[in-house]
Amino acid sequence: MEINDYAEKNRAAWNEAAPYHQEHRKIDLHAAVKAADFNVLGEVEMQALEKIGLRGKNIAHLCCNNGVELISMLKLGAAHGTGFDISDAFIDEARKLAETGGVNCDFVRTNVLEIPETYDGTFDLVAFTIGALTWIADLPRLFAISRRLLNPGGHLFVYEMHPVLNLFAEPGEPGYDPNDELKIVYPYFNDQPWVSTDGLDYIGGTAYEGKVSIGFAHSLSDILSAVIGSGFILTGFKEYSYDISLAFARLEKYQKIPMCYLLTARAGD
Q: Tens digits of per-residue pLDDT, 152-183?
């Protein structure tokens, strides 16, 4: 199966999931984005972005979903933003939210591995946030594109689920043990894609037989090697013991494993 086949299957799966997300959100986003102080970013993200500096910057958010994180960055002083995502439905929602919120950003429906060269060298910051990298088969290609998008001295920002979480089974999966939730079920080094039809409603937890979705279990060395190999200079890396995924909150109470990380880097010369 070619990379584009993976992407198109995921496109259909996320389009299918969008109405479930919209139905089960606890807040009315179309009302919330009107506020001048609208912000869905967490404290750790805020601190890192403040260190990089948002004011006056042009931002690319890859795998942007419905755009609320990018809209938040615009509300915090960024000059312009462009969000890229595979899903038609989420890009449509993002455009409507941006218009309602009165922010200066665009949204592009595309496979992020196919962002055209017309965007090269036009951004000050490329951002990835929660749950993006697992859907991308080719990390070296992804971060090479990210580097290409940045102007000289531009920054990369990655706030993601930790690859260690791929070791543990979720409730309902073979191997899951409610009496030993930290039992290692899956291999850390896993070159086989995750193939599922369980549906992608992580907002409401709706159980439905969904279209096929395909994810990838990248190791931390895969991620770091792809970033460094694409011409980035690491400026920060830190792991955290709290859950940002909405899928592994049950493991947070043990405080024994890394659950997310924040990586920042600068485009090299």
A: 999 999 999 999 999 999 888 899 999 999 99
Range of the domain at 99: 3-162+218-267
Q: What tens digit of pLDDT does each residue of 49-98 get? A: 999 999 999 999 999 999 999 999 999 999 999 999 999 999 999 999 99
Residue 174 — φ and ψ, nearest 5°? -55, 135
102 touches 83 (CB < 8 A): no
Q: Cα 109–111–116 angle (5° rounding)?
A: 85
CA angle, corner 98, sides to 261 and 211, nearest 5? 65
Number of domains in the chain: 1
- Residue 92 belongs to a domain: yes
What counts of helices (H) and strands (E) characterise the chain? 8, 9
**Stated length of the chain:** 269
